[in-house]
Amino acid sequence: MKKFLKIVGIILLILIFTGGVYLFSIKDKINLTVNILRKYSEFINENNIDTKNIVAIELESDKDYKEVQYKNTHGVPLTLDIYEAKKTLKNGSPVLLYVHGGSWVYGTKEIPNVISPLLDAFREEGFVIISTSYELMRGEENFNKQISDIKDTIRWIYKNKEEYNFNTDKIGVIGASSGAHLSLIATYSKEDEFIDDEDLKNYPSNIKFLVDFFGPTDLNTLDMNNVTWDLQQVIDSLGNNKEEIFNKYSAINYVDSNEPNTLIVHSKKDSLVPYSNAEILYNKLLEKKNKVNIITLEGASHDFSEFDIDEIISVGTKMLKFILQNI
């Protein structure tokens, strides 16, 4: 009996020691989670949940970098903005890359107010936020170049990790609308696909996770009968190749069994990109045994001009949880 108790005692000591090591290993993540949740809650309380008071994330001249050129191919210089971390982390700063929307023909890399408070909370805890540009379409389809631009942005992050103290093991991409479409293909496609800048082609483009806001995943589902004049010119340039092009550049056709963890955010009220795009991608990722979560909104329009504030807060909280689980 004494021998048995002695063995049990040794096992308990091992378990206690192992548990202690584990708790120590996740201590930083626990602190990070608590701090970001606190800051995000403070924002909500201070603004009385009134989105009119939301302040966009701002550059600080002594900590941030505006209009950093990441490549110049075919005489088209492309830039990104770097919002530096406000805390130094031992293994470098995790990176959150934002890719703007705008129907492939419009948009700027300015970070929208809706997600600024959440990203700023991450900045406070040692994350770098990068917002990139890509070559907008002017009169003709240019999906290949745009996808390459996003992929080259990720490659640039790897190339410059020492200079800017990036932790390239923890890169997350947040894409909105057409920016989500480009991000999905850029991150789901193979390393040797979508190469534009020869100086960047040998750098990796793999990421840890992806957040898809209202992204088109099957271009054939989009109603192209009531679009802006600029986008109509692009569609007209496709001629009889429209179906072929739409199939070639639909994200669902790039899903394999080793994709980054994906969070899909989509609204049933989206009249521009039907909710079926979220369902198709979600089911395809599950079919290929990938990790995927989906947040379904009931009241938000595609551009968030109509929304339920409780849904916005819920999205922020769930997005926060997703990111923290994947770093």
TrEMBL record:
It comes from the Bacteria. Residues 80-285 form the BD-FAE-like domain. Keywords: Hydrolase. One of its GO terms (molecular function) is hydrolase activity. InterPro entries: AB_hydrolase_fold (IPR029058), BD-FAE-like_dom (IPR049492), GDXG_lipolytic_enzyme (IPR050300). Gene3D superfamilies: alpha/beta hydrolase. The keyword Thylakoid does not apply. PANTHER family: AB HYDROLASE SUPERFAMILY PROTEIN C4A8.06C, ALPHA_BETA HYDROLASE. This is Alpha/beta hydrolase. It comes from Clostridium gallinarum.
